[in-house]
UniProtKB/TrEMBL annotation:
InterPro entries: HTH-like_dom, Integrase_cat-core, RNaseH-like_sf, RNaseH_sf, Transpos_IS3, Transposase_IS3/IS150/IS904. This is Transposase InsO family protein. One of its GO terms (biological process) is DNA integration. The lineage of its organism: Bacteria, Pseudomonadati, Pseudomonadota, Alphaproteobacteria, Rhodobacterales. Residues 92-274 form the Integrase catalytic domain. GO terms for molecular function: nucleic acid binding.
Amino acid sequence: MKVVAETLGVSRSNLHARLSGSAKPRRRYHKAQDAALLPMIEALVAARPTYGYRRITALLNRRLRADGAAPANHKRVYRIMQAHGLLLARTHAERPERAHDGKIVTIRSNLRWCSDGFEFTCWNKEIIRGAFIIDAHDREIISWRAVAGAGISGSDVRDMMLEAVEARFGGYRTPHSVEMLSDNGSPYTAHDTRIFARQLGLKPCFTPVRSPESNGVSEAFVKTLKRDYVQVTPLPDAATVLELIAGWFEDYNTSHPHSALKMRSPREFIRAQTATA
């Protein structure tokens, strides 16, 4: 039996138990409270069909803490979702070979803001284009613009910059220099835009040509916007969609669990920073 066990790569006791029929079949592990968590998880998955188990765990624990209950471990949520076919399908996209230099994320808020544009098509073929400014540390969308059937102009970008400065600092100029990272699109590189940015206390910075990864914070948000909002929402026409976008950004800022923020939303992260400062 020793030779057979070594050949099969199992222990002799395991082999003996299998031959004698004394080995008990393993059953799926579960806790008695799983039945209470399942309806809550199913409701969250129905409302957020693009969320994986870690973000579902964050939303579930947010609700459990509000009810005064103990939070659930993410491994337990994974097990429940796996048992009931609620997990997202795995994707196997290849990673791009192109590398980029420099670090985008900052050690605190209001050191570097990033900006980029987005575009998607409504069901009636009308095109929505927009742009936004996001903080590279706390990931909050500070300001944004969206239009139908046209492009984002330099005036739109300047309005976003002013709105962002007012929102973060309560005035018309930053108390210290804030980097403003964007691509090389004409609304950002326009002479009037660069002059206006400096007047606000912003320092315009531009990504290298053909290197969108150099603005990875913005690129990541565009992916989140399209996956978690655009793809799961009816988009009949531009007028309807333009009324929805404000709610999307507000939901992202207040509710969307972010992996880089320890599964907190941007504003939860900001409140936690403020409390410990």
